[in-house]
């Protein structure tokens, strides 16, 4: 089966924003929800550690393309939308663990909230710790408290956004283009954090579909 998928490739965070096909949107939505529900229900009912680890590492072998086809166009506040964003977050972290860990660490130093604690990364958080955090969050979807895993993902995004904003402020006088790039990244991370929080709330009310 592995031969049917593309090997992992690097991509920008906005690569899939333009993915628009000619398929029936209603059918795409139905397939996305059915596959997300079936996958999550089956694994959570019997969370075999080997299966969970294969799912966590799925994109390492197959890339993100297959999941993009399934879930990337789903509502951000839906089960497939939540799964897609968690997987995408993990892929982006693994593509740049050094840069991500730097922004996260910077965020922990200037954050005035409990988000660094909620995220659950050891401090100081280097590239290895941030990569492991992403894996822990993804495992939590399949064998832990789903809402807590989403809360951790939201906290991670908020802390990293704070770090990106802080660094952007430092760079604004000397590197305005880089500062703008970091500000844009912070805004996207903050939006993603809000989406994770909404999904966690819906899950707790048994309304995430």
Overall form? globular
**Cα distance spanning the termini:** 28 Å
Briefly note the structural class of the backbone: mainly alpha
SSE succession = HHHHHHHHHH
Number of domains: 1
Helix segment tally: 10
Q: Which spans of ≥5 residues are poorly predicted at pLDDT below 50?
A: 1-22
What's the gyration radius in Å? 17 Å
- Main β-sheet description: none
Q: Estimate the mean pLDDT confidence.
A: 89
Give a count of the beta strands, DSSP E runs of length 2 or more: 0
The helix fraction, in percent, is over 70%
Strand content: under 5%
Organism: Compostimonas suwonensis
Protein name: DNA-directed RNA polymerase subunit beta
Secondary-structure topology with pairs:
Elements: H1 25-45, H2 49-56, H3 58-62, H4 65-71, H5 79-95, H6 97-110, H7 115-119, H8 127-143, H9 146-171, H10 176-204
What does this entry look like structurally?
The longest helix is centred in the last third of the chain and has 29 residues, at 176-204. Mean pLDDT is 89; it is low at 1-22. It is built from ten helices and no strands. The protein is globular and about 50 Å long. The chain has helices spanning 25-45, 49-56, 58-62, 65-71, 79-95, 97-110, 115-119, 127-143, 146-171, 176-204. It has one domain. The chain is mainly alpha-helical and 209 residues long. Helix 4 packs antiparallel against helix 5 (79-95) and helix 9 (146-171) runs antiparallel to helix 10. The two termini are 28 Å apart.
């Amino acid at each position: 089966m592995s031969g049917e998928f593309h090997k992992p490739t690097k991509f920008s965070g906005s690569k899939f924003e333009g993915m628009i096909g000619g398929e029936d949107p209603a059918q795409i939505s139905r397939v996305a929800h059915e596959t997300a529900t079936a996958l999550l229900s089956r694994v959570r009912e019997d969370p075999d550690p080997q299966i969970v680890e294969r799912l966590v590492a799925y994109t390492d072998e197959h890339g993100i393309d297959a999941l993009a086809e399934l879930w990337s166009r789903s509502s951000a506040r839906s089960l497939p939308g939540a799964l897609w964003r968690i997987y995408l977050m993990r892929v982006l972290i693994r593509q740049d663990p050094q840069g991500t860990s730097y922004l996260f660490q910077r965020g922990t130093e200037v954050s005035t909230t409990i988000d660094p604690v909620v995220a659950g990364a050891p401090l100081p958080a280097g590239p290895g710790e941030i990569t492991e955090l992403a894996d822990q969050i993804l495992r939590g979807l399949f064998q832990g408290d789903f809402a807590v895993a989403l809360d951790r993902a939201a906290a991670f995004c908020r802390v990293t956004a704070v770090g990106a904003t802080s660094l952007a402020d430092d760079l604004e006088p000397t590197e305005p283009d880089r500062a703008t790039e970091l500000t844009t990244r912070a805004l996207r991370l903050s939006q993603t954090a809000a989406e994770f929080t909404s999904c966690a709330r819906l899950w707790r009310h048994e309304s995430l579909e």
